[in-house]
Design goal:
The protein is of the alpha+beta class and about 625 residues long. It is built from 26 helices and 19 strands.
């Protein structure tokens, strides 16, 4: 779409979008009181939640990395969208029709991510229809049937078929108005040997890949048996969408859009290896199953899962890996063991004794067998140690000692220190060694670790000082509940001693008719915001320090408290000034200042009595 989105449309989308509903699709949020919610920040790794959302004002802020802004800023940063694309995304969610200013249209070609998603969605519909056609698609239907998937299962997962033709999808999308550039940027077509565009996928079973919001961003495609039998066909068995503006394989998990609610509610995620495994597991009742999309399970996948599990230091929640029982599967499980240290949750592995994957297990033994596989999971620590030990001959002392030397470092990697003694006992039993021998070996390895603990930089000001906490609380009330803060205009100009707090006071006083979102500029993200705006963003999402509902009585009392402090400062300054004046030579000036002092002392006593109602 060309042209700028009208400002009134931008405001409408921002004001009518529930920020916690949007963020809740990516991060598990918990109520923190007073219209506030908290969760783990999706923009950096953390163990304790420092990501706050103010649902009434529509802002978020992370006290760990500083990222923050409104719902538009969140979508822009997390999904790597432009401002226009973020507005279009949010408008689509609410079914709102945007209007564009044609006079501001750019003369150059532009391709929005929403158009790429639309092209992928149209391609998915095309492939789904093709799966039901006679001819080559029969091979695709038979493939599914042999793996226990009927037509309803195929429809549930939107499985389709790419016909064995050079440009059938290309012509179809062209007829729907998609440009060559849009189709190419979406990864749906490629340039052929003759210079013309051809379909990327041909004679393949197709699985659409959706992002966490449910948008179709790419595809996984498996070639059919007839192609595999062709010795001249060098194409891979599985072909996945290449990196595109909307398809980032390191951050995508197949099936997550369907599983995310169950993952959040059950606090469990089951990681399987492929598209058919996800289908089999979810159809069998393992509704938290997901899989990577043609890449190894990595750091970005961990971050996505941690955000949904609200992974913290409580060691709650489960991540269960299922792997093939062969050597490659064992290697993958050991890699997962290393990744486990990036979780603060309980990690398990589930491998069928006969090495079958979930799809094969469901075909051979039914849905219950898949559920039992997950139920019989064992801790990943245990599996990794047993795999390591299995490489050595335990029938001789040399083999037992060698196995101990290899498995001891694994014990030291266990994040939960309370588990280490238990595994020391287990290892002693598996190796047939004395517990003290194993314990000493573990301690010896641990003693070699000499990683310095990084020191946090000293803060410029101690924001936990009572007076600064008071100033911060008043600003939070002014930003979050201005209707309760009726005495704002009475607060002395010298009330805020911390310069950043004073800057906010001056900004608010200079714009008395402006609402907070307007002052904050809406879509500022992280370090891009002015320091004053960034601090305002912190204060607008930080919970007010009171148990229960914030009342007018509390607001009045805290205003009185800060006024009392400000008046105390003024009184101290005036007393110091009086000490420098000769009451005989400058009697008139002395009398004026003394009269001012008496008035301030009287006002301070009034504010002190009003502040008694402050129960913070």
């Amino acid at each position: 779409m060309s042209g700028l989105i009208r400002n009134e449309d931008v405001a409408y989308v921002r004001d009518h979008t529930q920020i916690d509903a949007v963020i809740g699709e990516y991060v598990q949020l918990k109520h923190a009181g007073g219209g506030q919610k908290k969760g783990l920040c999706p923009f950096h790794d953390e163990k304790s939640p420092s990501f706050n959302v103010n649902t009434t004002k529509g802002f978020f802020h992370c006290f760990g990395c500083g990222a923050g802004g409104d719902v538009i800023a969140f979508i822009m940063k997390l999904d790597h969208l432009s401002f226009t694309e973020a507005i279009e995304n949010l408008a689509d969610r609410m079914g709102y029709q945007l209007q564009y200013d044609a006079s501001s249209a750019s003369s150059g070609p532009t391709i929005s991510k929403s158009r790429l998603i639309a092209a992928n969605t149209a391609a998915m519909d095309f492939y789904r229809n093709e799966l039901n056609q006679p001819g080559a698609a029969q091979a695709g239907r038979e493939f599914l049937q042999k793996r226990g998937f009927d037509r309803a299962a195929a429809e549930k997962f939107s499985v389709g078929f790419a016909p064995d033709q050079w440009d059938s999808l290309y012509k179809h999308l062209k007829g729907l108005g998609f440009s060559d550039e849009e189709m190419n940027n979406a990864g749906l077509i490629k340039e052929g040997s003759r210079g013309s565009y051809i379909d990327r996928y041909r004679n393949r079973l197709i699985w659409p890949v959706r992002n966490i919001s449910g948008d179709v961003v790419g595809f996984g495609a498996r070639k059919m048996a007839s192609d595999e039998a062709n010795p001249n066909d060098q194409s891979p068995k599985y072909l996945n969408t290449s990196e595109t503006p909307v398809y980032k394989k390191s951050m995508l998990l197949y099936g997550l859009d369907m599983a995310k609610k169950e993952i959040i509610s059950k606090r469990q995620v089951v990681v399987v290896e492929g598209y058919t495994d996800v289908m089999a597991a979810q159809l069998a009742g393992v509704t938290t199953a997901v899989a990577t999309c043609g890449t190894a399970f990595g750091d970005d996948h961990i971050k996505v899962i941690r955000n949904l599990l609200m992974d913290a230091d409580a060691f709650s929640g489960e991540v269960i890996f299922t792997f093939d029982g062969d050597a490659a599967g064992q290697k993958a499980a050991l890699k997962a063991f290393d990744d486990d240290q990036k979780f603060a949750t309980q990690t398990f592995v589930a491998i069928a004794p006969d090495g079958m994957d979930p799809c094969e297990l469901r075909m051979a033994r039914g849905d219950e067998a898949v559920r039992d596989l997950v139920a019989r999971r064992i801790p990943l620590f245990e599996f990794a140690m047993k795999v390591t030990i299995s490489k050595y001959d335990l029938n001789n002392p040399e083999g037992r000692v060698a196995a101990l030397n290899q498995v001891a470092p694994l014990v030291g990697k266990i994040k939960d220190a309370s588990l280490r003694p238990e595994y020391v006992k287990s290892i002693a039993g598996w190796l047939g060694l004395d517990v003290d021998v194993v314990s000493n070996a573990v301690k010896k390895v641990a003693g070699k670790s000499n990683n310095p603990i990084p020191m946090a930089p000293a803060p410029q000001a101690n924001l936990n000082e009572p007076i600064l906490l008071l100033e911060r609380e008043v600003l939070k009330l002014r930003l979050q509940l201005p209707e309760l803060l009726r005495g704002w205009s009475l607060i002395e100009q010298s009330a805020f001693s911390y310069p950043p707090y004073q800057a906010i006071r001056e900004l608010l006083d200079a714009n008395p008719q402006s609402d907070v979102p307007s002052l904050m500029g809406g879509n500022q993200v992280g370090g891009e915001a002015d320091p004053t705006v960034a601090l305002m963003r912190e204060l607008i999402v930080e919970p007010i320090r009171i148990d229960g509902e914030v009342s007018e009585k509390y607001a009045a009392a805290i205003i009185a408290r800060i006024r009392e402090v400000a008046l105390t400062r003024q009184i101290a300054e005036i007393k110091s000034r009086l000490q420098r004046i000769n009451p005989v030579d400058e009697a008139e000036l002395y009398g004026q200042i003394f009269g001012e002092l008496v008035g301030l002392e009287k006002e301070r006593q009034i504010q002190k009595s009003l502040a008694v109602g402050d129960n913070s």
